[in-house]
Amino acid sequence: MKMRKAQAAMEFLMTYGWAILVVLVVIGALGYFGVLSPTALLPEKCVFGVELACQDYAVHTNKIELKLQNNIGTAMVISKVAVVKDDKVTYMCETTAEGKAGLMIGPIPLQNSQVGSYTIDCKGTNLLDRVDQKTRLYVNVWYKKGETGLEHKVEGDLFAIVQK
Length: 164
Prior knowledge:
By secondary structure, this protein is of the alpha+beta class. The chain has 2 domains: about 1-35; about 45-164, Sandwich (Immunoglobulin-like). The protein contains 2 helices and 8 strands. The chain is elongated.
């Protein structure tokens, strides 16, 4: 009698043990081939503060293109755009209104509700060597609003596929 109970218990454990092992192998294979990668599952996004709305974006291996809309209620002058590493301190590439260290194209000043196109040149920085993969970038934009002349900073979060 005890033998049958022990045998039934052992068969139960073996059957479910093999099933659990197969499930673990399948999950491991999916993870190995990148199907379960968090970056593959997350959508692309471009988020800035309320002052600037990100209308469109493109991340290339050597430049970043942004279309930003002025939402502060008055004209603004964008003076500098910089791409920052994950530590949010170290600059990877930047550009200014004068075109120093890169190229910035767009309306200066940017009127209320107007959309401006801006290009940040990142040549020679080894910034984006992950073509066809998603990457996270932090973008800082400095602007002056109205006639006060005081400079403000908006931090943006860009998560996109790197294109050639």
